[in-house]
Amino acid sequence: MSALLLRGARSPGSAREIDVRLADGHVASVTPVGEAEVRHGDEVVDARGTTVLPGLVDAHVHWTQWAQVRRRVDVGAARDPEEVATTMAGAATGGPGMVVGHGFRAALWSRPPHKEMLERAAPGVPIALVSDDLHAVWLSPAALVRLGREHPTGLLREHEAFAVMPALSAGPDVAELDRWVAAASAEAAARGLTAVRDFEYDDTVAAWSRRAADGGLALRVDAAVWEPWLAATLDRGHRTGDAVADLVRVGPFKILADGSLNTRTAACHHAYPDPGDGYGALNIDPGDLRDLMVRVARDGLHPAVHAIGDRANAVVLDAFAHVDGPGRVEHAQLVAPEDVARFARPGLVASVQPAHLVDDRDVAERHWPDATARAYPYADLVAAGARLELGSDAPVAAPDPWLAIAAAVARTGDERPPWHPEQSLDVATALRASCGGRLELRLGDPADVVLVEEDPLHADPGTLRAMPVRATVLAGRVTHRGAA
């Protein structure tokens, strides 16, 4: 049977060249260069000068939103709400549809967003903006009417925001949306990505099963389950880890314990500087959270609980003490010192997004001024024995695993010095957390492989961020070929 033979690559940190044979969707052999037999029908790839790694994984994405965001008005660079309003007015075409923007970051603004700012800039135009962190939606008066809502300011947060987001995604038909998703997946493969864990607020299992039916997915997908689709998931007999289509598995069960830093709704032990924000807020009662986690775990679904503030992380860890089985804490951005060791619980994953520390360091300094030494505490978590997985939270950050690795290592993304460098990860640890926990290929592994032009273990942060990818292979099929 034909195979893909990668000839002359090197393992990370090694000068020794090897041949890697990929056959039947798995790693069939790893031998010194020249020892692998070339069989009839084999495709031989000259991999000399590259480093070979297990395929890279983004442990937390919202993939449909990532595919859509690139077709929305980008307001991420706006310095105040008026600039956002002016940008959106300029994007209005006069057509009947909603004008949708993405990426506003209000945490450093001196004035909060308000619906009348949008109305003054574009009278009568239905405008909707999704915040960078996906936890707020800012609507103009016409948009509120279009959505059948009333609100005093037009700034919806948390559950109110989540309730209107599906309507903002209703523009393209399913076929077009799937084409956008496929294009985004192909671009991600060009950065070495071979798998994502998709937390889209949708029936993601059904959506990805539909996409897989056409064949040729560019990524493996673990499709998370949300509560509105829990009953249907269990009726189908699905459990976390079940294969439902080629390259698609049932993922964990997603629960939101609190909000976010940028929306100032992350539940914290300390108060936010603005009295109106209080201590943030839990999105679910602690007792209800515990009961829900216990129930879904008994039904075979692994809980994956969003927790950003230190109070939320403590509440989630308390609940996990009652859960029999694996689970995940998504984000873990602020952790009390007494809770760090609790992340070492067997079967628990701390799923973190290092690009957020680069993007949000100024926000954290303003809103968590006395707690930044405990923010994004990656080194402490690793030292305590926690299992880390890196991701992007796309579209909050781009789904580029090299950006996440570089941020975890450098703790900066610009000319400023590292932010709390005592929490930096070494390259090998960050890389393992992006490659399924290992750096070298093993016999029998899935044939998900990436060839990169530089050895990551010897690369500086700038090289890591821009890491050139020679080729990406998914299940033995080449999904990206770069210039040799």
TrEMBL record:
Coiled coil: none annotated. Residues 43-480 form the Amidohydrolase domain. InterPro entries: Amidohydro_3, Metal-dep_hydrolase_composite, Metal_Hydrolase. It comes from the Bacteria. PANTHER family: IMIDAZOLONEPROPIONASE, PROTEIN LONG AFTER FAR-RED 3. This is Amidohydrolase family protein. It comes from Actinomycetospora aeridis.
